[in-house]
Design goal:
The chain is of the alpha/beta class. It is 29% helix and 19% strand. Strand 4, helix 5 and strand 5 form a beta-alpha-beta unit.
Protein backbone atom coordinates (compact mmCIF):
# COMPACT_ATOMS: atom_id res chain seq x y z
CA UNK A 1 0.00 0.00 0.00
CA UNK A 2 1.30 3.47 -0.81
CA UNK A 3 2.05 5.39 2.37
CA UNK A 4 -0.19 8.37 3.13
CA UNK A 5 2.72 10.73 3.66
CA UNK A 6 4.29 10.78 0.21
CA UNK A 7 6.15 7.55 0.89
CA UNK A 8 8.13 9.01 3.80
CA UNK A 9 6.05 7.99 6.77
CA UNK A 10 7.32 5.13 8.90
CA UNK A 11 4.41 3.08 10.24
CA UNK A 12 5.43 1.07 13.28
CA UNK A 13 4.47 -2.58 13.82
CA UNK A 14 2.03 -3.56 16.54
CA UNK A 15 2.49 -1.91 19.93
CA UNK A 16 4.99 -3.76 22.10
CA UNK A 17 6.49 -2.63 25.36
CA UNK A 18 4.46 0.57 25.20
CA UNK A 19 4.66 1.17 28.94
CA UNK A 20 8.38 1.76 28.55
CA UNK A 21 7.58 4.91 26.58
CA UNK A 22 7.38 6.81 29.87
CA UNK A 23 10.75 5.57 31.10
CA UNK A 24 12.60 8.77 30.26
CA UNK A 25 14.96 10.68 32.47
CA UNK A 26 13.77 14.14 33.42
CA UNK A 27 16.69 15.63 31.53
CA UNK A 28 15.25 14.24 28.28
CA UNK A 29 12.19 16.49 28.56
CA UNK A 30 12.56 19.81 26.75
CA UNK A 31 12.29 22.62 29.30
CA UNK A 32 12.40 20.14 32.21
CA UNK A 33 14.84 22.33 34.15
CA UNK A 34 11.67 24.05 35.40
CA UNK A 35 13.37 27.42 35.27
CA UNK A 36 11.49 30.67 34.95
CA UNK A 37 11.99 30.59 31.22
CA UNK A 38 9.81 27.48 31.02
CA UNK A 39 6.98 29.36 32.69
CA UNK A 40 7.38 32.20 30.23
CA UNK A 41 7.07 29.81 27.33
CA UNK A 42 4.01 28.02 28.69
CA UNK A 43 1.56 30.41 27.05
CA UNK A 44 2.97 29.42 23.70
CA UNK A 45 2.69 25.75 24.59
CA UNK A 46 -1.03 26.16 25.39
CA UNK A 47 -1.57 27.68 21.96
CA UNK A 48 0.21 24.78 20.32
CA UNK A 49 2.76 27.06 18.73
CA UNK A 50 5.74 25.04 19.93
CA UNK A 51 5.52 21.37 19.00
CA UNK A 52 9.05 20.15 19.59
CA UNK A 53 10.08 20.86 16.01
CA UNK A 54 13.56 19.44 16.49
CA UNK A 55 12.02 16.05 17.33
CA UNK A 56 9.35 15.95 14.65
CA UNK A 57 10.22 14.42 11.30
CA UNK A 58 11.73 16.88 8.87
CA UNK A 59 9.35 16.00 6.05
CA UNK A 60 7.14 18.23 3.99
CA UNK A 61 3.62 18.91 5.35
CA UNK A 62 1.15 16.07 5.03
CA UNK A 63 -1.31 17.89 2.84
CA UNK A 64 -1.06 17.39 -0.91
CA UNK A 65 -3.13 19.12 -3.60
CA UNK A 66 -5.44 16.09 -3.78
CA UNK A 67 -5.96 15.97 -0.02
CA UNK A 68 -5.38 19.53 1.12
CA UNK A 69 -8.85 19.70 2.67
CA UNK A 70 -8.26 16.76 5.01
CA UNK A 71 -6.96 17.02 8.56
CA UNK A 72 -3.54 15.36 8.98
CA UNK A 73 -4.98 12.40 10.93
CA UNK A 74 -7.62 11.87 8.22
CA UNK A 75 -4.85 11.80 5.61
CA UNK A 76 -3.19 8.99 7.56
CA UNK A 77 -6.48 7.13 7.88
CA UNK A 78 -7.10 7.46 4.14
CA UNK A 79 -3.66 6.01 3.51
CA UNK A 80 -4.49 2.95 5.61
CA UNK A 81 -7.65 2.15 3.62
CA UNK A 82 -7.26 0.26 0.31
CA UNK A 83 -9.18 1.02 -2.86
CA UNK A 84 -12.72 -0.23 -3.57
CA UNK A 85 -13.56 -1.03 0.05
CA UNK A 86 -16.74 -0.58 2.07
CA UNK A 87 -16.24 2.01 4.81
CA UNK A 88 -18.40 3.16 7.72
CA UNK A 89 -17.34 6.48 9.29
CA UNK A 90 -18.61 7.02 12.84
CA UNK A 91 -18.94 10.68 13.79
CA UNK A 92 -18.17 11.62 10.19
CA UNK A 93 -18.61 15.37 10.68
CA UNK A 94 -18.92 17.18 7.36
CA UNK A 95 -18.06 14.02 5.40
CA UNK A 96 -14.61 15.15 4.22
CA UNK A 97 -13.03 11.71 4.67
CA UNK A 98 -15.89 9.80 3.04
CA UNK A 99 -15.92 12.21 0.13
CA UNK A 100 -12.17 11.83 -0.36
CA UNK A 101 -12.34 8.02 -0.21
CA UNK A 102 -15.20 7.93 -2.71
CA UNK A 103 -13.42 10.21 -5.18
CA UNK A 104 -9.84 8.95 -4.90
CA UNK A 105 -10.27 5.30 -3.91
CA UNK A 106 -13.72 4.38 -5.27
CA UNK A 107 -14.78 3.39 -1.76
CA UNK A 108 -18.42 2.74 -0.92
CA UNK A 109 -18.93 4.80 2.19
CA UNK A 110 -21.63 5.39 4.77
CA UNK A 111 -21.59 7.60 7.81
CA UNK A 112 -23.21 8.25 11.16
CA UNK A 113 -23.23 11.78 12.53
CA UNK A 114 -24.99 13.22 15.59
CA UNK A 115 -25.14 16.89 14.62
CA UNK A 116 -27.76 18.11 12.18
CA UNK A 117 -25.25 20.55 10.72
CA UNK A 118 -22.85 17.71 9.92
CA UNK A 119 -25.57 15.56 8.37
CA UNK A 120 -26.65 18.42 6.11
CA UNK A 121 -23.05 19.04 5.04
CA UNK A 122 -22.73 15.35 4.11
CA UNK A 123 -25.99 15.44 2.15
CA UNK A 124 -24.72 18.42 0.18
CA UNK A 125 -21.70 16.30 -0.76
CA UNK A 126 -24.03 13.56 -1.98
CA UNK A 127 -23.00 11.12 0.78
CA UNK A 128 -25.08 8.41 2.42
CA UNK A 129 -25.21 9.49 6.07
CA UNK A 130 -27.77 9.06 8.82
CA UNK A 131 -28.19 10.96 12.06
CA UNK A 132 -27.54 8.82 15.12
CA UNK A 133 -25.91 8.49 18.54
CA UNK A 134 -22.90 6.17 18.69
CA UNK A 135 -23.62 5.36 22.34
CA UNK A 136 -26.63 3.35 21.12
CA UNK A 137 -24.33 0.93 19.30
CA UNK A 138 -24.42 -0.39 15.74
CA UNK A 139 -27.25 -2.91 16.02
CA UNK A 140 -28.68 -1.82 12.64
CA UNK A 141 -25.63 -3.22 10.85
CA UNK A 142 -25.06 -6.99 10.31
CA UNK A 143 -21.75 -8.69 11.08
CA UNK A 144 -18.96 -8.00 8.57
CA UNK A 145 -21.08 -5.60 6.53
CA UNK A 146 -18.04 -3.31 6.00
CA UNK A 147 -14.33 -3.70 5.40
CA UNK A 148 -13.30 -0.76 7.61
CA UNK A 149 -14.98 1.29 10.33
CA UNK A 150 -13.43 4.67 11.16
CA UNK A 151 -13.61 6.60 14.45
CA UNK A 152 -11.59 9.81 14.21
CA UNK A 153 -11.01 12.14 17.17
CA UNK A 154 -14.20 10.88 18.87
CA UNK A 155 -12.92 8.24 21.32
CA UNK A 156 -12.33 10.70 24.23
CA UNK A 157 -16.00 11.72 24.16
CA UNK A 158 -17.51 8.20 24.46
CA UNK A 159 -18.98 6.92 27.73
CA UNK A 160 -18.37 3.27 26.78
CA UNK A 161 -15.43 3.09 24.36
CA UNK A 162 -14.97 -0.68 24.78
CA UNK A 163 -18.53 -1.35 23.60
CA UNK A 164 -18.08 0.89 20.57
CA UNK A 165 -14.75 -0.67 19.57
CA UNK A 166 -16.12 -4.20 19.85
CA UNK A 167 -19.14 -3.16 17.77
CA UNK A 168 -16.79 -1.67 15.16
CA UNK A 169 -14.91 -4.97 14.94
CA UNK A 170 -18.17 -6.86 14.69
CA UNK A 171 -19.45 -4.98 11.64
CA UNK A 172 -16.02 -4.79 9.95
CA UNK A 173 -12.83 -6.81 9.87
CA UNK A 174 -10.73 -3.74 10.72
CA UNK A 175 -11.24 -0.53 12.67
CA UNK A 176 -9.20 2.67 12.35
CA UNK A 177 -9.15 5.15 15.23
CA UNK A 178 -7.39 8.45 15.82
CA UNK A 179 -7.27 10.40 19.05
CA UNK A 180 -5.34 13.21 20.76
CA UNK A 181 -2.54 12.14 23.10
CA UNK A 182 -2.39 13.66 26.58
CA UNK A 183 0.93 11.84 27.13
CA UNK A 184 2.64 14.49 24.96
CA UNK A 185 5.51 16.18 26.80
CA UNK A 186 3.92 19.63 26.52
CA UNK A 187 0.79 18.39 28.31
CA UNK A 188 2.92 16.84 31.06
CA UNK A 189 4.91 20.03 31.52
CA UNK A 190 1.80 22.19 31.62
CA UNK A 191 0.24 20.03 34.34
CA UNK A 192 3.47 20.06 36.33
CA UNK A 193 4.01 23.82 36.17
CA UNK A 194 0.44 25.08 36.46
CA UNK A 195 -1.44 22.30 38.27
CA UNK A 196 -4.17 22.59 35.63
CA UNK A 197 -5.58 19.90 33.33
CA UNK A 198 -3.93 20.58 29.97
CA UNK A 199 -5.75 20.82 26.68
CA UNK A 200 -4.54 18.27 24.16
CA UNK A 201 -2.56 20.00 21.42
CA UNK A 202 -4.84 18.63 18.69
CA UNK A 203 -8.08 19.06 20.66
CA UNK A 204 -8.36 22.75 21.63
CA UNK A 205 -11.33 22.37 23.96
CA UNK A 206 -11.47 23.09 27.70
CA UNK A 207 -12.46 20.33 30.12
CA UNK A 208 -15.77 22.00 31.01
CA UNK A 209 -17.05 22.51 27.46
CA UNK A 210 -19.64 20.23 25.89
CA UNK A 211 -19.23 17.48 24.92
CA UNK A 212 -16.98 16.51 27.84
CA UNK A 213 -13.81 14.55 27.09
CA UNK A 214 -11.79 12.01 29.04
CA UNK A 215 -8.02 12.45 28.88
CA UNK A 216 -5.88 9.39 28.11
CA UNK A 217 -2.54 8.59 26.50
CA UNK A 218 -1.07 6.33 23.84
CA UNK A 219 0.14 4.01 26.60
CA UNK A 220 -3.32 3.95 28.20
CA UNK A 221 -4.88 2.94 24.91
CA UNK A 222 -2.32 0.21 24.21
CA UNK A 223 -2.95 -1.34 27.64
CA UNK A 224 -6.70 -1.03 27.16
CA UNK A 225 -6.55 -2.88 23.83
CA UNK A 226 -4.47 -5.64 25.38
CA UNK A 227 -7.02 -6.14 28.14
CA UNK A 228 -9.97 -6.00 25.73
CA UNK A 229 -8.53 -8.64 23.38
CA UNK A 230 -8.00 -6.14 20.54
CA UNK A 231 -4.86 -6.27 18.40
CA UNK A 232 -3.10 -3.13 17.17
CA UNK A 233 -1.81 -4.12 13.73
CA UNK A 234 -0.65 -0.75 12.37
CA UNK A 235 0.08 2.61 13.92
CA UNK A 236 1.30 6.09 13.06
CA UNK A 237 1.90 9.26 15.06
CA UNK A 238 1.78 13.00 14.45
CA UNK A 239 3.11 16.09 16.18
CA UNK A 240 1.76 19.40 14.96
CA UNK A 241 0.59 17.71 11.75
CA UNK A 242 3.98 16.13 10.99
CA UNK A 243 4.96 12.46 11.36
CA UNK A 244 6.78 11.31 14.48
CA UNK A 245 9.39 8.63 13.83
CA UNK A 246 10.75 8.03 17.34
CA UNK A 247 9.28 4.59 18.12
CA UNK A 248 10.61 4.29 21.68
CA UNK A 249 9.18 7.63 22.79
CA UNK A 250 6.06 8.00 20.65
CA UNK A 251 3.89 8.52 23.75
CA UNK A 252 6.12 11.42 24.77
CA UNK A 253 6.49 13.25 21.48
CA UNK A 254 3.21 12.69 19.58
CA UNK A 255 0.14 14.90 19.80
CA UNK A 256 -2.12 12.53 17.82
CA UNK A 257 -2.11 8.76 17.30
CA UNK A 258 -3.71 6.66 14.55
CA UNK A 259 -4.23 2.90 15.01
CA UNK A 260 -5.57 0.08 12.87
CA UNK A 261 -7.31 -2.53 15.06
CA UNK A 262 -8.30 -6.15 14.54
CA UNK A 263 -9.54 -8.96 16.73
Amino acid sequence: MTGPLSGRTTVEPAVTGQVAADGVAASALPGSALAGSALAGLAQLRGGQRDCQSLASQTSPLATPARAELRPDLQLIAGFIPEATKVLDLGCGDGALLDHLARSKQAKGRGIELSEEGVLACVRRGLSVRQGDLEEGLADYPDRSFDYVVLSQTLPFLDDPEMILHEMLRVASRAVVSFPNWGYWGCRLELLLTGRIPQARDLPQSWHEKPRWQAFTVTDFALFCRGAGIRITRQAYLSGGRPVNIPKFKNLFSTTAVFVLER
